[in-house]
Specification:
The complex is a heterotrimer. Chain A has one domain. In chain A, 8% of the residues lie in helices and 38% in strands. Chain A has one helix and ten strands, in the order E-E-H-E-E-E-E-E-E-E-E. In chain A, the strands form two sheets. Chain A has a five-stranded antiparallel β-sheet, with no helix packed on it. In chain A, strands 4-3-5 form a three-stranded antiparallel β-sheet, with helices on one face. In chain A, a hairpin with a 5-residue loop joins strand 3 and strand 4. The mean pLDDT of chain A is 95. Chain B folds into two domains: 135 residues, Peroxisomal Thiolase, Chain A, domain 1 (3-Layer(aba) Sandwich), CATH 3.40.47; 206 residues, Thiolase/Chalcone synthase (Peroxisomal Thiolase, Chain A, domain 1, 3-Layer(aba) Sandwich), CATH 3.40.47. Chain B contains eleven helices and twelve strands. Chain B has a ten-stranded mixed β-sheet with strand order 3-2-4-7-1-8-12-11-9-10, sandwiched between helices. In chain B, helix 3 packs across helix 11 and helix 6 crosses helix 10. The longest helix of chain B is centred in the first third of the chain and has 16 residues. Helices cover 9% and strands 33% of the residues of chain C. Chain C is elongated and about 80 Å long. The chains are: A mainly beta, B alpha/beta, C mainly beta. The interface between A and B is large, with 44 and 40 residues. Strand 1 of chain A pairs antiparallel with strand 2 of chain C.
Amino acid sequence: MPAAEILSAPLVLEYPFSRTVGPVQSAFLTGLREGVVLGVRAVDGRVVCPPMEYDPTTSDELTELVELGEMGTVATWSWEPEPRPNQPLDRPFAWALIRLDGADTGLLHAVDAGSPERMASGMRVRIHWKDERVGSITDIACFEPAEAA
Amino acid sequence: MRDVAVVAFAQSHHVRREQRRNEVEMLMPVLHQVKTDAGLDQSQIDFTCSGSTDYLAGAAFSFVMTLDGVGASPPISESHVEMDGAWALYEAWVKIQTGAADTALVYSYGKASPGSLRDVLSRQLDPYYVAPLWPDSVALAALQARACIEAGVTSVAEMAEIAARSRRSAADNPFAQLQGSDDPDVLLKEPEVASPLRRHDCPPVGDGAAAMILAAGDRARELVDRPAWIRGIDHRIEAHGLGVRDLTSSPSTRLAGERAGVGDAPVDVAELHAPFSHQEVLLRDALGLGDGVAVNPSGGPLAANPIMAAGLIRIGEAAARIRRGDARRALAHATSGPCLQQNLVCVLEGEA
Amino acid sequence: MSELLVLPPALRDVEPVRSIRTPARLEYTFRAGEATSRFLRGIASKRILGERCPVCGKVMLPPRGSCPTDGVPTGEQVELADRGIVTTFCVVNVKFSGSAMELPYVCASVLPDGADMGLFGLVQEIPFDQIRMGMRVEAVWVDDDELQPNLASIKWWRPTGEPDAPYESYREHV
């Protein structure tokens, strides 16, 4: 049968999904809603952000919250030339792993740099908060390049 | 430990879009071929295990329909992993180790063409902190590539050489989707598609299927002349959080390789499931492969990357070379998750 | 909240986040494959096409290109009658979202003459408490200008008035 005779139809898979969060995640997301960024201290002393409930190496329950700054350093980045639906920005932007001041691990988010020429590992960036926040990673609208301190 | 061997392997011709056939119609010729090659019908297969993901089809339990191509009546002992078929092979290998089976059919397939693969793969990410941002698989691989380049692990020039070598090797592979390549310096003139990755650094998207038959000990020797023995197999996973991992190395691959016995003797051939060019360097380093090892003579995932089947195909290609006498000791690797999060290593040898 | 977790002052008196909404939407273009396309195009011309298995000889309906028992391709097309037997049915008394049906109504598995598998459909034009297994029915198609390559082209099945089929004649298909 020629390919043209094969029937096709659009199919949409859509789920509402609502997820309960653990105590550490709750603290982090509540913090974002209130404009505060938290990390958690791992067993080896590293401060992990975004924070997790259990230590990634030892699996111990983690409980020591650490308040972090709103600025950070780009550890590595890539460029998104054609943003896809649901991504943080609808104009080209950079994805980056960002080590917030006080944290030892990277948080993945978007950097509204305008062009890839403005991006560099090691550059300083600052959180750009959404005006209305609900307690989600998207309360951070994106990061923006910040001038060196 | 029981000796387990690969006694048959088959794959489809991998294409960008399988326009005419559905998943079952695509799988059936591959399933029939391995059973014919092994001389077994379904009633002689003790265990069947498949690997695939329903998210490619957009329908829950869509994998069940592929059993229509297996012939599952009278009822069969069967299992499924929502993963690459390499992990279905691992489950079948474990089943044989327990003595509950002497023969197994393993198959996997991926028909990515109906949906948007980059969006689909974003659903496997951390649902709380990462998935709501919908980062696509190419962007995440690009993050890792830049980290590797800036750490001196690799360079865009080396990545272009890997891409060119892979697709030129694929000229001998009738099943590959992409065959042949321009010279690396021509490739490097192309624009970046997701800085620092260029198009040639990325795997093709396509549809394809693969199947394999495993057999234990003397059963394997009864079925075929030259079984490819699995001497070691292991898989390890790294932390879920991308920012917690060191993206410039692959400790899970190194550990899986040690446990699979990669270092016990020199390896002739390595089929590495490195969908992005920079990842081949990471895997070579983690497995301690020297220059004498032929990497991805099949062309590897840069020539054909049917999601959920590409890892099983690495094992199949390595086994095929052992069985043809083109290699004495081969290594096959499969990966799952963003930026080489989870890795399986398998070591194969011909009859002593 | 764990007692060990010490919140910073800014978060101590506010309502904590207990859950997040993470909707997911993925879009696909579903392609039906050869067997299903052939079947549905047949429906659009008021033909019910099954496929015969070369090994067991059974006629699959709706056909999907393979025999689930033998795992072989089923290319041979078999044109079936648009009349057959109710092999089993149920009386639906519960409304579910998206359904415009008046309650109660009857869903049935109908085995067209010549087929070894049935089609699901509605049974109408008979009081629901008179429907029984073995009842012979015929398809009621939509008007010709409303025919589409999908099973909604068969509006429902209605009794033909013929004598019921004996149980032995369809017991293997129940």
